């Protein structure tokens, strides 16, 4: 049995940064990683460019983590985006910010972020055991130590950090192992589901619109004919259904069987659009319906695909448009219905929603409320952010708090 002061399961950014912040002289810190190298998922973030954080005011960050955003208050204010960038600046890395406020390494290489972290680990003598998949975790209450078993070794550790990530991109090693370890230690797991992912719907009307993108579309979410919420953002029609920020960032709220209603025109409601449509049909009576609808900045493909759903001929003369027909058109274009057949799975989801129940974790330290000296950081927690660097920021910020608390423990023992 190998004795360790601190064991961290998972060599992603959250696990590594926890170790860096916890490191103290003469403390034996070990990171166990099932892969042959560290940071496998980090290296593919942002298509390999690593969107590490966002340039926005840290107060705005809380609008990008869904309903569990308050949990991150201590973490984000303790270690915000400016402190994260400053840390890497000290390691000779420079950054660039794009038009959307996303921040990347100047080199556009995620590998530079990983190399900086690993270099710091070397300085602080943090050890790694690769190809070491953890099989079981237990807590010896009498001796107050964790017993961590791999195929090769058994470790006895005074402190333990779960930094295994979620279930997204399982080829990188994120296969949900950490959830079982948390359960073994008494924690409740909120059912994991794909997040930051696209919507699958094989409706031929959607497939025929593949490649069309729309800006600032108003979307409402319905479940069992009950309205849930409304938002506006960009969408992209794909060969499988819908994508784009309006879908990806809100996929955490979707359930199979839900329905989306898309407002494809620049009117607040269908009544206003219907009235304007009747007005324009008289003003431009010589136009057919297809050309009349082009007056509303609608793509021709959208018109020719959706208008027939109202059982109307796109070549019908606008002057002959009846109030009932205008009502049908308004209904279609202001509330274009898309059923959620299912979401793209964990293989394509950027992150995982669900994870360790946040009510069982101290938000000021990331320490378990149920098991002393156990910590959880990063994606294994039941919180997920929008695209734009918010998830990596949360990983570093939660790791910072855990590391600081562990450092305090080490200093007092």
UniProtKB/TrEMBL annotation:
- The record places domain RsdA/BaiN/AoA(So)-like insert at 193-350
Alphabetical UniProt keywords:
FAD, Flavoprotein
Q: Does the keyword Membrane apply?
A: no
Q: Ranges for the RsdA/BaiN/AoA(So)-like Rossmann fold-like domain? A: 5-404
Q: Which InterPro entries match?
A: BaiN-like (IPR004792), BaiN-like_dom_sf (IPR023166), FAD/NAD-bd_sf (IPR036188), RsdA/BaiN/AoA(So)-like_dom (IPR055178), RsdA/BaiN/AoA(So)_Rossmann (IPR057661)
Its cofactor is:
FAD
The record ties this protein, via NCBIfam families, to:
aminoacetone oxidase family FAD-binding enzyme
Write down what this protein is called.
Answer: Flavoprotein, HI0933 family
Q: Which organism is it from?
A: Halanaerobium salsuginis
């Amino acid at each position: 049995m190998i004795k360790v002061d601190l064991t961290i399961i998972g060599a992603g950014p959250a696990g590594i940064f926890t170790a860096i912040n916890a490191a103290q002289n003469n403390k034996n810190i070990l990171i166990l990683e099932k892969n042959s190298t560290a940071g496998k998922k980090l290296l593919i973030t942002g298509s390999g460019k690593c969107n590490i954080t966002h340039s926005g005011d840290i107060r705005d960050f809380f609008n990008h983590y869904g309903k569990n955003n308050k949990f991150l208050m201590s973490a984000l204010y303790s270690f915000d985006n400016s402190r994260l960038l400053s840390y890497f600046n000290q390691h000779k890395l420079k950054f660039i910010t794009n038009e959307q406020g996303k921040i990347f390494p100047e080199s556009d290489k995620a590998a530079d972020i990983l190399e900086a972290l690993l270099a710091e680990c070397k300085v602080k003598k943090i050890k790694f055991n690769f190809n070491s998949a953890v099989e079981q975790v237990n807590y010896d209450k009498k001796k107050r130590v964790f017993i961590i078993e791999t195929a090769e070794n058994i470790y006895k550790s005074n402190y333990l950090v779960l930094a295994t990530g979620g279930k997204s991109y399982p080829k990188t090693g994120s296969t949900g192992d950490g959830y079982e370890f948390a359960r073994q230690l008494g924690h409740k797991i909120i059912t994991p589901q794909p997040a930051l992912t696209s919507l699958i719907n094989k409706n031929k009307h959607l497939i025929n619109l593949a490649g069309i993108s729309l800006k600032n579309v108003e979307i409402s979410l319905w479940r069992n004919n009950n309205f849930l919420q409304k938002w506006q953002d960009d969408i992209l029609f794909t060969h499988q259904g819908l994508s784009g920020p309006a879908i990806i960032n809100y996929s955490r709220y979707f359930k199979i069987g839900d329905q989306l209603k898309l407002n494809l025109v620049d009117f607040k409601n269908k009544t206003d659009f219907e009235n304007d449509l009747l007005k324009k049909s008289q003003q431009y009576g010589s136009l057919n319906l297809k050309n009349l609808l082009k007056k509303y900045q609608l793509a021709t493909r959208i018109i020719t695909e959706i208008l027939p759903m109202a059982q109307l001929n796109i070549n019908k003369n606008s002057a002959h448009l009846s109030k009932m027909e205008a009502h049908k058109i308004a209904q279609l274009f202001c509330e274009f219905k898309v059923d959620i057949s299912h979401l793209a799975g964990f293989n394509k989801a950027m992150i995982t929603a669900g994870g360790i129940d946040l009510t069982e974790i101290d938000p000021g330290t990331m320490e378990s409320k149920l098991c002393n000296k156990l910590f959880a950081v990063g994606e294994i927690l039941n919180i997920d952010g929008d695209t734009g660097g918010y998830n990596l920021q949360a990983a570093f910020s939660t790791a910072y708090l855990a590391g600081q608390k562990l450092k305090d423990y080490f200093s007092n023992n």
